[in-house]
Specification:
single chain; nicotinate phosphoribosyltransferase; TIM Barrel; 7-stranded antiparallel β-sheet; 6-stranded parallel β-sheet
Amino acid sequence: MKITKDLYQSSLALLTDFYQLTMAYAYWKSGKAEQEAVFNLFFRKNPFQGGYTIAAGLDYIIDYCRNFRFDEADLEYLEEMQNSDGSPTFQKEFIEYLRNLDFSCDIEAVEEGTVVFPNIPIVKVKGPLIQCQLLETPLLNIINFQTLIATKASRITEAAKGQSVLEFGLRRAQGIDGALAASRASYIGGCSATSNVMAGKLFDIPVSGTHAHSWIMSFDSELEAFHAYADAFPDKCVFLVDTYDTINGVKNAIEVGKSLREKGKEMVGIRIDSGDLAYYSTIARDMLDEGGFPKAQIVASNDLDEQIITSLKIQDARIDIWGVGTKLVTAYDQPALGAVYKLAAIRKSSGEWEPKVKVSQQSIKINIPGDHDVVRFVKSGKALADMIYLTGNPVEKNNYVIIDPNDPTKRKKININGLEKDNLLKPIFEKGKKVYLRPDIHQIRENAKRNLELFDKAHKRLVNPHIYPVGLEEGLYNLRTDLVLKMKNYDE
């Protein structure tokens, strides 16, 4: 099947906050537009009070950057903008500058499907200050949502413990684009299929679905509806049994299943979409087994999420496949990831890089300065810790100390002898040219699965997960501390 790339082929340069354009104009006016800078995109807390996060959205970023430009309609719109006194908001020379703007940044990023944690740069952008600034809003828009949904999907599939999870959220998603991005991210996070046919076409995701209650209600009886559906799809019969009475619906499904068997076909299963799922799935399983259909699967839906699935499993519900919609694609219990995009360094006229830090009364909001990278230490197939370090200081020493950026009393000593090192940030663009070989979505999904296997169950549990150690290399931590003290005028 042909996999569609470049989902966004037209200009999306105006998909940004207005203040990005006002800053861009001010950079240009002050002669700083071409000054080199480094920005990092990261988040401060794992979503859903969880212990990990699944990175997603890089493929969209690649499309966005490859097609980044201001087309004539964009420029005309900007040229017509006026200040309160009627004067043009932007000078014609600036409009001409934007007309000739060619994307030329270096971008490094964590690959999609990678397990990531707070403060780790998911995307690092280096290049002309004006370009780095203009990328802030779209990159955050893409990463924030898809990473959030991929993480939610991962938590749900972890709760399902190896059973299939189907994403059913199109009708409840946040608009057309939200639905497509959610379907894609859900598949990366571990869902087996989607109900969203357009997502299936665009992203090569398996699609799944049977029929709704309206199908049953359009016939004089449930039994007649089941027979008609079996005639239409004799190889894919999953009957929705709760339109009128669940137990009677299972009886009708069994009757039609026997008719199918006489024709050499086999009923796939039933779906229960309401009521006490633990109770009705147990009754249905017994009825199907006694009726001669031990292999028929029971699909459950009805506002499911990881907590409800866990509860149903504790109750020994006899459910084989989970259909999850609203609470997955809307990230129902946490509507935003909260990732941010911060300036970390700027190149001075001397050619040296000057680290930059944002100071806050809240330690969690103090960014990590400098051009930095992150390495994951792995021993015997298990991740031990992640270290954030300055790019100019390669990881070559035998012993390191990493320090929690928010709590200096939390420290971990690491002897790297015998450890595997995985540099998480991979080159994506160099001087505006793509250098990354894009994996397909199935490879990304497998990457997420392999990544999760690196981590102990304690990091993945839904409630009070064990905190995975992520810290600053000691020299970077000291640099950050010194810069904060300097900005607060504490230096003597």
